[in-house]
Design goal:
With 238 residues, this protein is α/β, with parallel strands linked by helices. It has seven helices and eleven strands. The structure holds zinc ion (ZN).
Amino acid sequence: MTSGTSTVHPYTLIRSPRARRLTLHIDPERGLEAVVPARLGEERARREVEAFIAERSRWVDRSLAELAQRREALGTDGRITLGGLIPYAGRAHRIRAAEVSAIGVADGEILIPEKVAASEGLLQTRLTTWLRRRARSVAEQMIAVYAPEMRVQPTRLRIADQSSRWGSASADGTISLSWRLVMAPPSCFEAVIVHELAHLRARGHGVRFRQIVERHLPDEAARMRELQRLAPALGAVR
Ligand SMILES: [Zn+2]
């Protein structure tokens, strides 16, 4: 692994024997990374990477901005109460009473109907329920994308508050997920979905499991590491 600078963006070059083509992704700590097949020589790899980055500079800019937002989610206070700051989809959101008929999200804020906001207990229950529903809905959308592609069919989706784990897959085809994933960046949520769906085809974390995961989400491991870093912030919300 070596670092380099394209005309605009610094990046880390990784030459991997397993990579079949050039891919770019954002590592939460190292920032922009370019993975290239090891067979490409360093100089040629750099030329190709820099051309690739230049073509995709808008994606790179947007992704680096998202990374900054995720870091911000770590600065939340995790209080489900009026004025509290909680992470939602990887970004800090302020909980605020508003003239709305149902709980909703707008521009860095979670808006609570005045009637609900009037009672601390009601706000707690309603907002937690809403977050769990959002978690289910996001999970269902992601499963609808990945399950056919991965040729698996979960029998049941359970949204739980497993504090010790993000998700699990059981032999009967049930996928269980922590509702707290809805607060994580969607890319991390997606990694847990792919991880658990892969378990429907391979138990344990052996070679076969890794092959399935990497075929569908090559940077799953990096995304899971990021999720672990966010775990204290997400686990503290209550
Ligand atoms: Zn696993």
